[in-house]
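Thread: Newbie trying to understand structure tokens

Hi all, I'm a second-year student working on a class project, and my supervisor (Dr. K.) asked me to get a predicted structure for one chain before our next meeting. I've only ever worked with sequences, so writing a 3D structure as a token string is new to me. If someone could post the tokens and maybe explain what I'm looking at, I'd be very grateful. Here's the chain:
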Amino acid sequence: MSTITNFTNLTEVAQHFRKDLIGDHRPMKDLVLLFAHNASGKTRLSMDFRQIGKTFDAEGNITSRDTLYFNAFTEDLFSWNNDLENDTERTLILNSDSAFFNGLRELELDAKIESFLNNYVDLKFDINYDESIVTFSRSILVDGNEQTISNIKISRGEETLFIWCFFMAICQLAIDKDPAYNWVKYIYIDDPISSLDENNAIAIACDLCSLLTSLGNEIKTVISTHHSLFFNVLYNEFGRKVKNKKYFLHNKGANGYALQDTNDTPFFHHIATLNELKNIVDKQSDENPPKIYTFHFNALRSVLEKTATFFGYDKIDKCIDGLDDEVLFERALQLFSHGKYSIFDPVEMGDDNKELFIRIFSGFTGKYTFYFPKIFNEANLTETA
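---
Reply by user tm_fold:
Sure, no problem. This is what the structure looks like when written as tokens:
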């Protein structure tokens, strides 16, 4: 049975990953693949991993670093000027104050970005390094003749792909040991596929695997995602090509984090969530029962969505169809799972909502009669390694 390791905070999790990758008291790995639900701390974990790799001088200035990373902060380095006044000169602005863009002119990234971008979309771009802007154009056929439309505003998915290809080009430089990136020992990638359809998610996973398993790559990598298809493709693509560890990160609110080794069960995460919720519900009659927080509705909804997908339902309400008070249950799921109920500032449910949550969970698990293996048995839990 897989091991579950408990951690107090995300910095400890990041340190655990680094031990995996350097082989500290365990077989050395080249890759860590992590599944974690949205709002469970993935982005913060990537930043903690990066921070550990920095060194500082006496004045607090950064003297060295070791992690090239992609996460939500990377995407925020790109922003749009939509030319609201004239609606003609639409440009993507690069945040020139960021070290991420240092030396790009000399590195001639355009061709490298284009080679990646052509795998996904038919789109032309031009980088103006002096003004730190990118303009886009597209060729279309009009009455059988090819015409170019300039200064277009690209879709959110195309923007995601461009930024991703920008990062992939830099990764290629690091893997090829370009002097500008000889400091990179780790690449940390967090959820690069927001706003993308499933075909592009699969394509990115395959291309990422090809890049990271290229001959001579000595850089260690961490990839985290909340996207089950992306995770599954990476799981299968990397396979035995690289020495790797695969985990599911579970946020326990005020009780820290649990890291589940998923090497034997790649889709253990939804079972872990279901068992955690069952554990909370079953212990409500105890003298000191665990608290039920509003964000637990998010977790329950996630399980319902996976169940609906498995049975081919178009909506999650089919999973509670036929239960007593199903209309009330559906409204409660919609309200609580879309409200501002964050695990970063957990709020305990009131007694009425606790009772409603228990009724929904019990009705759902009774309808489908899930088998609950004792995956959270104390015998399988270890303390922070």
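A couple of things are worth pointing out once you decode it. Confidence is low (pLDDT under 50) at residues 339-345, 374-385. Residues 86 and 211 are 42 Å apart (CA to CA). Feel free to ask follow-ups in this thread.
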